[in-house]
Amino acid sequence: MPLSKFLSLPSLLITFAMLLNACGKDDSTPTALTGTLRGTVQVWNDKATSITDRSGVTVTLDNLSGKTTTTGADGSFQFTDLPFDSYDLSFSKSGYGTLKLIGAKLSGTTAGTVVNLPTIQFGALSTTTITALTPNNTTYNGGPGVSYNYTVSPAPTTTNRGYVRAFLSTTNAVTNTNYTAFSSLNSALNANVIGGFTASELYAMGFSTGQTVFIKLYGDSYQSNDYEDPLTGKTIFPNLNQTSAPAISFIVP
User: Per-block average pLDDT, block size 10, for the chain (253 residues)?
Assistant: First the structure.
């Protein structure tokens, strides 16, 4: 007896569609490709001296919960069986500022691909403190600008320098996280130092003639561990010594 005797037209159409779907269905799901992310950490003290023993640095994949490893004595680390993707890595150790590497890419055309990251430069927390900061003059390097005197501790030597970074803002609440501009890393050879900026340097930072600008100094490390926060666009400075003199102000010439 014909099947149509028992099925209405709508039922026949549904049955036909189900048969087509069953015939065309592929039960095989492609396996996601995985590989290895590998790297080496070079460890520094807060001066310009590298540390031979690079062990004990904790490396974490921020976007994969529970994925953590620790460097060996040679500073090496690796993560295996990772799906091809882009990863954010954090590096941390007691006495060191946390460093972040954003967007490390693991990709390839075959399973088991190994990606070797560039050597990670990882610095210790700064031991340099700013004990005094005072205005000096309205000139710098022989031309218009601003200069200031500052004192660092412990007293640096030619083989054991102190490193300092300046942060500037139009608000007196300037800090290393609340700033408009920041300087490059400056080295101090003596306990008492004259620092400053030329007028053109201040203009390049976005300040203009007649503005009141506040400046605050912090001890930093030879290897700063600084990185840009992708959410805020701000540069983060994890190695700063937070013991610092109060901010001072000056008028942009």
Answer: 46 47 53 90 95 97 90 97 95 95 93 95 97 96 96 92 97 97 95 97 97 98 94 95 97 96
Q: Is the bond preceding 83 in cis, omega lying within 30 degrees of 0?
A: no
Predicted confidence at residue 109, as pLDDT, reads 87
Residues 183 and 96 in one domain: no
Q: Cα–Cα distances in Å, from 164 out to 14, 30, 169, 173?
A: 76, 54, 17, 19
For residue 107, what are the CA distances in angstroms to 65, 83, 247, 248? 20, 9, 47, 50
Long-range contacts of 112-117 (CB under 8 A, 24+ apart): 112/34, 112/35, 112/36, 113/33, 113/35, 113/36, 113/84, 114/35, 114/36, 114/38, 115/35, 115/36, 115/37, 115/38, 116/38, 116/39, 117/37, 117/38, 117/39, 117/40
Residue 20 lies in a domain: no
Domain that holds residue 174: 129-251
Q: Are residues 101 and 182 in the same domain?
A: no
**pLDDT value for 16:** 45
Are the C-beta atoms of residues 166 and 207 closer than 8 Å to each other?
Answer: no
Asked whether residue 133 falls in the same domain as residue 95, the answer is no
pLDDT at 12: 42
The CATH number given to whatever domain includes residue 232 is 2.60.40.2060
